[in-house]
Structures are given as structure tokens and as C-alpha cells.
Amino acid sequence: MAIGWYLAVSVIxxxxxxxxxxxxxxxxxxxxxxELMLNAANLALIAFSRMxxxxxxxxxxIIVMVVAACEVTVGLGLIVAIYRRKLPIDVDELxxxxx
Amino acid sequence: MLxxxxxALVFVLLGAGIGTLFAFANxxxxxxxxxxxxxxxxxCGLPSEVKHNFKFGISFYLIAMxxxxxxxxxxxxxxxxxxxxxxxxxxxxxxxxxxxxxxxAFVYVWRRGALSWT
Amino acid sequence: MTTVLAxxxxxxxxxIQILKALVIFAVGLQIVxxxxxxxxxxxxxxxxxxxxxxxxxxxxxxxxxxxxxLLWKEEFRPKTSIGFLFVLAPIISIITATATLAAVPFGNxxxxxxxxxxxxxxxxxxxxxxxxxxxxIAFYGLVLGxxxxxxxxxxxxxxxxxxxxxxxxxxxxLAVVGVVMMAGSLSLTEIVEAQAAxxxxxxxxQFVGFxxxxxxxxxxxxxxxxxxxxxxxxxxxxYNTEYGGGGFATYxxxxxxxxxxxxxxxxxLFLGGWLLxxxxxxxxxxxxxxxxxKIGALSFFFxxxxxxxxxxxYDQLMSFGWKILLPLATINTLVTAILVVVx
Amino acid sequence: MTLHLSIMLWLPAAFALLGxxxxxxxxxxxxxxxxxxxxAYAVVYVVDFDTGKxxxxxxxxxxxxxxLGINYKLGIDGLNLFLILLTALLWFGATLWANLKEWEHAxxxxxxxxxxxxxxxxxxxxxxxxLFVVFFDLMLVPFFFITVGxxxxxxxxxxxxxxxxxxxxxxxxxxxxxxxxxxxAEGTGNPVDFDLSVIQxxxxxxxxxxxxxxxxxxxxxxxxxxxxxxxxxxDGYSAMPLPALALFSGVLSKVAAYGFLRISxxxxxxxxxxxxxxxxxxxxxxxxxxxxxxxSQTNARLILGYSSIAQLGFITLGIFAIEGTGAQxxxxxxxxxxxxxxxxxxxxxxxxxxxxxxxxxxxMGGIAFKAPVLAVFFVITTFALLAMPGSSNFVGEFLxxxxxxxxxxxxxxxxxxGVVLASVYALRLFIRAMHNRVGADVDSRDLSLAxxxxxxxxxxxxxxxGLYPQLALERGEKATAAVVAPAxxxxxxxxxxxxxxEEEAEAAAEEPAGAAPQIDPTTGQPIDPATxxxxxxxxxGAPPAGGELIxxxxxxxxxxAPGTPGAIAIDPATxxPVEDPAAGAVNxxxx
Amino acid sequence: MTTLLAQAKIEGxxxxxxxxxxxxxxxxxSVIVLLLGLFRARPVxxxxxxxxxxxxIGAALGLTIxxxxxxxxxxxxxxxxxxLTLALTGLFCAAGIxxxxxxxxxIAPRESAHGEFYSLLLASLAGMVxxxxxxxxxxxxxxxxxxxxxxxxxxxxxxxxxxxxxSGLKYLIIGSVGSATLLFGTAFIxxxxxSTNFAEIAAAIADEGISDSALLLTGVGLAVIGLAFKxxxxxxHQWTPDxxxxxxxxxxxxxxxxxxxxxxxxxxxxxDVALIGVSDVWQPAIAILxxxxxxxxxxxxxxxxSLKRMLAYSGVAQAxxxxxxxxxxxxxxxxxAVFYLAAYTVMNLAAFAVIVARQAQRPDGDxxxxxxxxxxxxxxxxxxxxxxxxxxxxxxxxxxxxxxFALIQASVEGDYTWLGVMIVIGSMISLGYYxxxxxxxxxxxxxxxGEAKPAGIAPGPPVMAGGSPEADDARAPWEVVLVGGVFGxxxxxxxxxxxPLFDLAQDAAASLSGLL
Lengths: 99, 118, 343, 591, 516
What we know:
The structure holds five protein chains of five kinds.
Chain A: H1 3-23, H2 27-52, H3 56-84
Helix pairs in contact in A: 1-2, 2-3
Chain D: H1 4-20, H2 26-48, E1 57-65, E2 70-76, H3 81-99, H4 106-125, H5 129-138, H6 140-150, H7 155-188, H8 196-202, H9 206-223, H10 233-239, H11 242-267, H12 269-274, H13 276-296, H14 300-320, H15 324-354, H16 372-385, H17 392-407, H18 409-434, H19 449-467, H20 470-491, H21 499-510, H22 537-540, E3 550-552, E4 559-560, E5 568-571, E6 576-578
Antiparallel strand pairs in D: 1-2, 3-4, 3-5, 5-6
Helix pairs in contact in D: 1-2, 1-4, 2-3, 2-4, 3-4, 3-11, 3-15, 3-19, 4-5, 4-6, 4-11, 5-7, 6-7, 7-9, 7-10, 9-11, 10-14, 11-14, 11-15, 11-20, 13-14, 13-18, 14-15, 14-17, 14-18, 15-16, 15-17, 15-19, 15-20, 16-18, 16-19, 17-18, 17-19
Chain E: H1 4-7, H2 17-36, H3 42-66, E1 72-74, E2 79-81, H4 83-103, H5 107-111, H6 114-133, H7 137-155, H8 162-193, H9 198-208, H10 214-230, H11 239-246, H12 249-274, H13 279-302, H14 307-327, H15 331-361, H16 374-377, H17 379-393, H18 399-413, H19 417-442, H20 478-496, H21 499-510
Antiparallel strand pairs in E: 1-2
Helix pairs in contact in E: 2-3, 2-6, 3-4, 3-6, 4-6, 4-12, 4-15, 4-21, 6-7, 6-12, 7-8, 7-12, 8-10, 8-11, 10-12, 11-12, 11-14, 12-14, 12-15, 13-14, 13-19, 14-15, 14-18, 14-19, 15-17, 15-18, 15-20, 15-21, 17-19, 17-20, 18-19, 18-20
């Protein structure tokens, strides 16, 4: 099976996600990019799962989905909380900690 | 195999074709009489206040979060449901624990007032 | 080789696949104007009036006329809109509707001129997930449309649509879990066959699930009494306020196509698909007709409810979804699980 | 196996802890009691020490951390006996001294003082490399806190500098110590064991010895301090409160010198031989630099500080003569310098009190006119400091120079200049402070009774020690000879120069079984080379059946008649010293 | 149309309930606490909830002790209950108990509904237990996220303070990047080895000669990076000081201690069990990371005036030390790492307890200047912090010294002497900041009246109303002082008599077989 193509796509998605996290300012977009990274891994997992013909990768992928959802939920919660406090929704403007 | 999905692709293409056709039909068939006010967003007849940045209300984020969590319930239940008969009691216990945990979360969310909209 | 999700091995040659897709698409799309017209006529009857009766015999050509009228309108869009998304949104809607149509089984594999052909667009091992997946994408069609319009009514409608869709998707999804447990498969044809094997439609053991699913289906299709997203009294037209002409026609068509498709899915999951009651086993060519008949019946039910029930208030809508349907579906799942395992 | 060493070791800390729980002036009093008891213990050890016995006495050996191969092994031999006495003595003196003054938060102060004594005693007693490192590092902690809490101006940067200097050395030593233990165990297949005798028995390759030696040397040289690692000294000396400084300068620096003898020479003989010249030159530079700086300072503390650099240079010189005489001199000189430091510091405090709080010798002067007794004590101390013939410092420096002379004549000659310089700065200090014009703010008065109580015994001890240095020399000679033996063997010189050690080495060389006397690490008893078994200590009391004992004079190495005082009994069959049945000495001290 | 598996009878996995019992206690506690938090009565929320949380952790600890010596696979090889798991679980429980006590009267649980706070804490603890017991990549990832996600929220619990939410979001983003990277790495490892089970991966590496496959090595590299994020190993540590500073102090204490233990614990298991076959690849890489971490952490800590930031950097440095135990992949290495983890836990908890107590007294309690005069005015607070600082710096007769000693010994034995030297160099640099804290505490008031503050000390406390030491009569909660005192004593106790702890560490190390 031409695993290379799946991997190539997966790596590209991962890199897009990673660069998004590093470059973008809006935390919502950053969350999306995080999802992208996780889903890139999911793609790789499922591709490998088919390659090896065992279900481990699929189970892994389902769990990753859940985890991704939890992360997004928490992320959204934090963003909403910040929004409620009228803080700037821009990670570069969150300067109180001199990050 | 993936070939089973070929008809789905055909359906998607057909749907897209119809959508595109409709979307551009007006451009070709319709009349063209430009009046500036036509391009105003609908405001019940009042002078329009043009705004670009709409933001979702906070309660919608809350719903979104709840949705994510409970939709996952479904994600987990489907595979177990599929093999329920063959797994037998083990899966039953599994589902029981799982749903109990979710029920706890549900009760908590309810009691904390996340499910009440005013 | 062990795969957790079952693999469906059968598929036809490419040309048959494409051909049957075209046929199903054509037939499915024909049902839409019929339902449209039927709704107007039936609503009229409910409200002690005639409904459309000028265009063609008994107003039969009214839908065609409507579409023609819409397509000949001038193209315009608000200057506040985001052009690309504004155009794309209705296309997404119609694509998801048609794509879901592919999953509807009108019958099992039959021999047509010596070739085995499945009377369905696709039959995959994740059939139900496929339906839900496109249902989830449909959400984008509405929300993007409302948001890209740049109008406050559209936006409010989109928000409502978003909240409503995702709220009821959970309950809908959970309601199906019971069916899956009983059938032991996600494939729609296998679910029908499981009903055949059990000798009873799943509506009987899964009555609660059926109710929940049906209710969710109303909400998913933005039908009364859950049509808050396009509540004309409050929001003018909801997410499609700013759409006219082709865009509006697309949305409209998608909505009715969704009614058809969801009716079909409901019929498949709970009402035995192409099966007839009382063990009647007709020749296979009748199967699609049985399905279409069930679609018709359910669509009539959709219209009936619209004519009967008033629109819910928004908080009632959400509370109903979360506080009643969700626990109900969960309990249904749990009970089903126990029953399936114990028996 | 005996508990006594542990009791002595933990006594000061225990009393200090007890004192810390008590109110009012009691902590100080309790601390005096603790240090006095420790001193008593130390004196008993000195008296009870069995000069004729080889190896460690009063051995305590328990596994402490088995997983790491660290033992709780304490023992006394000629190397540390007098340093322990010195420690106990100086601590007693300093505790008394500290009691003369009101301290803020006295409880904590005395707590730290007591812990400090325990730490120093631990470092001196430790016969396990890791245990030594533990106590060596621990020594610093109390002084850090004392300086931070009760020090002078700019104490924080000063003490930080001091701690960083010394701990950098210590941490290097830590690595080196771990490496020593691991590398020594590597070849043997045994688990890692940090017991000094075990390490010595397995030995290290020459390549590893070199860097390990340098790491250890860094730690010791910083602590001493020696040029060029003395950068902390001016600040540190200025910041520390005087009683603590007396201890720091008088005792802690000696532990470093002791470390060379206890660890570097026997464990890394190859490296010690290789780096002998380097160390000698460092020592020489320290002597000259220290002397010159001491001469050019006006702050009395710094004069004493730099003089200690010079003195420790001498000590280092003695150690790295790699020769019995030099090493003996080094130990003697360590004790001497410690003995001098306490009264010198104390007098400095008295002088400062009379000179309006200033410790600058330009602000002093003419104090002697109204304080003749003080002047007398001061002059005795000064003479001891500059090694007047007749003082034990003289003997020490003489032995050191003698040792170096035998190996490195040129260095010995240059080092002699240091002796001259010492008299210059010591006398300058005395004259500027006590004579000359009366300083502007000087308000001279003589010793108070309390001052005298502290000063008199110490000064008397200096005198006594000057008259009878053999007390220390006798007890130290065996150990020193054994310590330098491996390195001497590397240098290709005869092992030891004192009769006994020499003879022993010769006897050992003739024996096919092994060169050096073997010590059983667990019991500390010599191993019988013939049988490979540990000689039964109780059996040693009786003369062996094989033949008559030979009696040897330890100073001359000549065979003497049985019953001669100070003679050592040797079993001709084994070449090992045995308990002299005629002398009837006891094995263990029972205070 | 057949489904392959629908017909096959699938056996449910054997579940060792006794082995899972500590985990069940934690999760059950989490659920109960969450529900208890719904009660309106103040005493229930403010005292019963933390008490139940304590009870749950205590039960988990008790069950851990009960299970000691068991070496069993749980849930068909997904988790393993061995002495390593149990030893680290013990540490988590200790950290958990301390955190509950520190939070008892802290503002963070009050602002975030008590039930939620403690429930999340317990959930995170459960995640840690899962993580260190994981013998499967899936369990590993699951544990890691169960650990992390509650922590993201806990960081943000002090909602009214600006830094808290920010630190939570920052932690979430960085932590998720780390998780995603680790996940991607594990996907590749799975791809190369064909299994997610550690033992099977090790077997695959040994048998199938994939030790030089690019897939595996990429995976290992990504996994190293991912874990480095979690363990705050340089150069992936930048989030640490900000997050530590922003989070509520009890949570910071928990993060600093437990997360590190968990991250190092799973690193030990992943690399020393699953990837032992390619040790010649990752050993140098991790060794270099460790060296960088030691230097970066220690140098970074030098300039900090906030104690929390300082401890954050110090934690980075300590992670570097700990990695030495991973690098050598020997029994001694694991033993030393486990021992040092225990020492690290004890020392940091003592230090954080004092910071919490000080913050209860003064608004600037986190600043180093707030410690001035602590030694004489509040010796009960000063002593634990002093011991903690000395221990972290590696002074003898403290737990830290013995731990470093063991780590250096393991490095030298594993032919990584230079790493041992790096540990020492790091410790030297660390003196600069640890001693500054100690000196600040114990310095009596300056003798010269004109001297406002002695040179060399960080700028003194900002002058504010009630900021002077005489005026702050706010008493630190006794349970916080208790935590500080107990852990302070433990620092000494371990330093003086470490053998029992070494025995435990030895058992733990022995449970990993197949080490170099």
C-alpha cells in the first residue's frame, strides 16, 4: 500500500497546523490549528492501521478525537472567560506575564 | 474499499453542479438594474447600520462546548454498540460506567445552570 | 486481519455505480417538488383554503414556476456580505443534502440484466456515520450563509440555527445507538435486514428512540415547531434573509431534500426500509416503491406537524433538547444495551 | 566497633538543638556545655590513643546508604587525632567568647555554631569518601547562616561569593568522589563502595586519577584558601563575625589540608606524584603572596587572613613534599596555626573594642601602655605566629622545610623567605597596634576577667605545645608515613623516612604476599598477610606463638630492648605491629 | 455483505480490579467531589469537599501501599501495575494531599466552585496514574491528556486575576502543541513497529531490524520533543515560568511537582522499555537536551525576583538533572531518577507551602523581597523554605544532595560522566539564586540605619500599606504551615536516612526489565 501518500498528506497537515499555531494571533484560529495537528496524527494513525491490518490505530484515532474535543472545549471555555473579562482576544496582546 | 464511495462522489458533484448552476443562473438570466440601496443589508426599512464584525454570544460557546462533550458520548457508544452482542457483559458494564460518568457531568452542568437559557 | 468496524466488500463495476447514482439522484430530486407542492396544498387544506391551483392542473406546475421565477431574478447581494462565502454557503447546503441521499437504501442487491446492482447510492460499513457526517457539514451551510450575509437578522438566524442543530444532533445520534445495538451494524442495508431477521421493525422495540430521532429530525431540518432559525416573525427570514434568486432557491431545495432524505433514513432505521409489514414479501422491484411510499408518509407527517403545532420559544427549544431528549435517548441506549446483552 | 565517635560527633549538634528550644541565655550556656563535653571527649582520645597501633582506632563502620555504597565509617588515626582536639578546643573557646556578647536571636546563632562543630568533626572523622564529602560541604552551611545573620557590612555579597567559591569546589569534589567510587569498583566487579580503604585497595587508573585529583585539589585549595583560588577571602573575612571567623580560619581551612592527606595522597598517588611540582609551586606562591599581602594590609583581619594564606601555603608545601617529615610538619603546623588563630582573632576583637570599633591598624596604637597583660598575651601569640624558635610553629615549619628540602631543594630555599616575611608582618601588626602613637579613638584598658578566661588557657596551650611537640608527632608519624607511602613509591623514593615506616616498607618489599600492610575495611584491623584473615584483635594482645616480639624505637627505627618506653612491638613473623603485652595498653577507650 | 468481526466472538479483556483500585479511588473521588460541590451549604462546599478529596487521595495512597510488590498487567497490556507505577503513584498522592491542604483556604477553589477545583485535581491525579502505568501508546496519550486538560483549567481557576486565565490559555496552547507532537511521534512509532504495545514495540525493534528505519527514528524524535514540552525541558520550556507565575500557587505547586514526576516517569518507561533497542540513538539526543536544560534552567533562574518564576526555572533545571537518570537506561539510572523525583517532590512542596503561606499574609508574598526577615519573625515558615532551597541546591544532609549523588553516580556508571559534570555545573550556577533566597530570609535587620537595603539583594518589597513585616499579623493557615513543616522535615529525614527510600526506588527500578 502506498503509505507514503497518506503520510505526505498527514505531514503537510501537521506542518500547516504547527505553523498556524506559531504564526496566528487569534486564539480561536490557534485552537483550530491545534485540531489540525491532532487530526494529521489521526490520519497517519489510520493509514498505519490499514497498513498493518490491525485495529490499534483506529482505536487510537477515536481516543484522539475525544481528547481533541476536550482540548477545544477547555480552550473555548478559557477564551469565553477572557472575553467576559474584556481582555483582548489576541495572544500577542496578552502581555501581563511578559510571555 | 474506497470504491464503494464512488457513487457518493457522484452525488456530491451533482449537488455541487446544481448549486453552482443556481448560484450563477441569476447572473446570466436575471435583469441588471443597479440601485445602491439594493446592496444594503435588510434592516426593516430603517437606515442600515452596517456592521462587519459580528460576534457569537457567550451562551453559544457554552452550547458548542456541551455539544462537543456529548457528541463524544455518541462517538464512543457507536463502536461499543456495534460489538455489543459479542462483547456481552463486559461491554454492558463499560457502557454503564461510561453513561454514569456522563450522567454525573450532565447533572453537574444542569445544576450549575448551564442548561438554562434566559 | 482484524478490523473493528466491519468491512463491506461488495461493489459494482464503475459504470453501474455512476449510472445508479444518476438514477437515484434524478428520482430523489423529483420527489422534492412533489413534497413542496404537497405541503402547500395540504397546508391550504388544513387552513381551509385551496393552496396553489393556478399553474397547471391543480397547481401542479407551481414548483417549476417558482424555480423559474427565482432563477430569472436579478442577482444582488448586500455590500456587507463576504462574497465568496455568501455564494458558497447555499452550495454547501445542497451538496450535503444530495450526498446524504446517496446513503438511502431503496432496496437490497438485485439482478438487473444479469448484473447484481445494489438499490442504493452507497452501502458502506459506516452508513449511519456517513449520514451524520454530512448532517454536521450542513450546519456550515446555514451558519456560513447567515454570517457571510453581513446582516444582523441573518446572523441571528445563523446563530440560532447553529445552536439548534448541534443541540439536537446529540439527541439524534444517541437515539440511533439503540438501533445500532440491535442491528449490530452501521450499514443501513444491514439494519434493514436485521429488522427483517428480527421479524419486527425497530420502531417497536425502539419506540422511544424513534420519537427522539424524529423530533431531532424536525429540528435538524429547521421544520416547525423548531423553525426558529427562519422564524419570519422575529427574524424576517433567518439565515437566508439576504438571499434571493438562485441562492434562495438552493436553500429551499436543500431544505426539502433534507426532509425527503431524513424521512427515508427514519424509514430505514425504524420503519423497516423496503420491508412490508406482516411478513409480506413482494418481488424486489416493489422495494423502491415501498421506500418511496414510506417517505411520502413521513413527509406528510412533517407537514401535518407544521400545520398543527405552534413554534416553540427559543429557551423552550433548547431546554427540550437538552433536558428531555438527551436524557431520554441516553436511558433508551442503556435499556437497549441491557436488553440486547441479556437476551 | 564503638559508639563513642558517633557520640562525640553528634554531641555539639544535639546540645545546640536542645539549646535552640530553651529560652533566654540558656542556649549559650548549653552550647558551652556541649562544646566542653566534646573537648573532654577529644582529650580522652588523645590520651587514650594507642601510638603503637597501625590503622584506625575507635572504628565505627555501618552501611549508611547501601544503594549508593556509602558507609557511616568513622575512625581516628594519627592524621586526624590532633585536628579533632584542635577543633574541639577552638570551638569551646569560640563558644565561650560568643557568650561574652549579646547576640540577636542567640538561639539560632548557637544552633549554627553547634552544627558547625559537628560538621567539622564529621569531615575529620569520616573514613568514607562520600561521607567526607557530605560533611565537608555541610561545614559551610552554618558559616553561611552565621555570616548572613550576624555578619558585618556587605555580608550578603561577601558570603555569597564565599559560598559559591567553596561550593563550586565542593561540587567538583562531589563529582570526583562519585567517579572515584564508581571507577574503583568498575574493575573489581564489586558493587560501588566509597569506603576509603576499599577504594585504596582497588585503585584507579592513572588517567582517571589525574582529573579526579585536580577536582579534589580545587575544592581543598579554595577552602584553604590558596592562590589563585583565594578571591573570596578579603570579602569573606571582612564580613564574618569574629568568633566564627576564628573558627573558619583556624579549623575549616585545616580540614582542606587534612583532605589532601586523607584522600588525595593515598587514593591518587600517581596523580599526586605527577602534580607534585604544580602543588608545590602553588604552595610557594601562596606563601609569598600571602606574606606580601599581609604586610601591605592595614585591616587587622585581612592581615590575619593573608597570613593564613601563607601559613596554609606552608602546610600544603609539607603535604606535597610527599615525605613523612613534611606531612608530619603539615599536621603539626595545622594544629599550631589553629591554636594561634583563635587568640589572634580574640585579641583583634579586644583591640577593635579599644580602638573605637575599627579594625584598621592605623586607628590603633599605643594600646600596650594601659594594657600590659594583653600585650604579653599578644606578644606570645605573635611569636607563635612568626614561628619563633621554641614555639611549636617553629618545629612545624622546620619539619616542613626539612621534608621539602629532601625532595625539592630550590623550593625549600625560596619557601624559607616566607618564614622571614612572616616575622615582618606579624611584628608589624603587633607594633602598630600595641606601641606607636596612641590612636585617635583609642581608649585602652586591660583584659577583663572573662577575656582572660578565654585567652589564658589557649596561650598556655601554645606555650605547652611549643615545649612538647612530640605529643603530636609521635601520634601522627605512623599515619603520615602510611599516607605518603603510595605516592612515594610512585616517585621511586624509599617509603617513609622514619625508622619504623622505613623498616616496615622494607619488610613488606621483601615479602612476596603484598607491598603495603593490608587493612580489613570492615574491622579496621590489619589483615594477616600469611592467612589472609583478619588478625583477631583480642589475639593480638598476646604474643604470637611463632617467636619473640621485636621492639623498635619509632623515632630512630633501631631495635631496642623490650620495655623501652615508646617502643613498638613487632611480630617478626608478619612484620606487623602488635599490641605490646608489656605495656598492657587497652584497645578501646572507655571514658 | 459480511462484517468480519461481527461474527467473531470478542473476549472482554481481563481486568485486575485490585490493580486498578488506586485509579478507581481517584476517579470515584473526583465524581463524588464534583457532585458534593453542588450543595449550597457553605460548610459542605468549603470543608466537606476538600475533606472528601483528601479521603479519596488517602484511599488511593492506601491502596497503592496495599498493592506494593504486585507486578501485573492490567487490561490486556494497556497498563502495568508494578513498583514503578506504585512508587510514582505514591508521589502523586503526596503531592495531591499537599495541594488539597494548600488550597483549602486559598482563593482559587472559592472562585471556581469548590467541587470543580478538587474534582479536576483528582482527575488530573488519575491521569498521572494512568500515564506512569501506561505500557501502550494509546494509554500513554490518554493518561497524558487526562493529566493535562484538568490542569489547563486549574491554572485558570483564579478567574479574577488577570494572569490566571492567560496562563491557562497559554498552557493549553503550548501543552496541546506538545501533545500533538507526541501523538504524531507515537503514530510514527506505531507505523514502524506495527503495534502500540510497549513490549511488542520493543520486540519489533529487536526482531525486525527496524532500528534504523526512518519512520521509527522520526517518531522517536517527535516523541522526545513532545515529552520535552510536558516535562519543560529546554528548549521547550518557555511556557513554564509564565504559567507557573500565572496559576494559583497551590496549582503551581501541583504542576511543578506532579507533572514533572509523571512526565519523567513515562519517559523512563517509554524509552527504557519500548525503545531500549534504539538506545544508541536517543541516548545522546536526550543527554544533550539534558545538558541544555540544566544550563538554560539555571541561568534563567538567576535573574528572577518572583519566587514562582524562580522555582519554575529551577524546575526546568531539575528536569535536566532527572533526564540523566533516563539517559543511562540502567537500573541505577532509574533508581536514581525515582529517588530524585521523590526528593524533588518533597523539596518543592515545602517551598511552595511557604509561598502559599506568605501570600496569605502579604499581597507580594510571591516576591523574593517578601521574605525579608522571615527567618526571625516566622521561623516556622523560614525553616522549610531554607531546607527546600538548600536541598534543591544540593547541600549535604538534605534529600537533594543524596539524589544528586545518586544521579551523578548513575551517570558515571553509565559512561555519561560528562553529564554528571553538567549536573554539578548546574548546581553551581543554582547556588546563585537559591542562596539569595536563603540569605534574604535570614538576614537580620541591617546594622546601619541609613542603609535601606543591603546591596546584592533583589529590590526590596514594594512599600505598601501593611507591607511592613511588623504590620502583617495575618496568620498563615495552619494546614499550610503543617505541609511546609512536614515536607521540610522530610527533606532532612531523607537526607539523613535515605535507605528506605532507596529500597523503594530499587524495587521500582527492578520492575523495568531489559535495561542496559
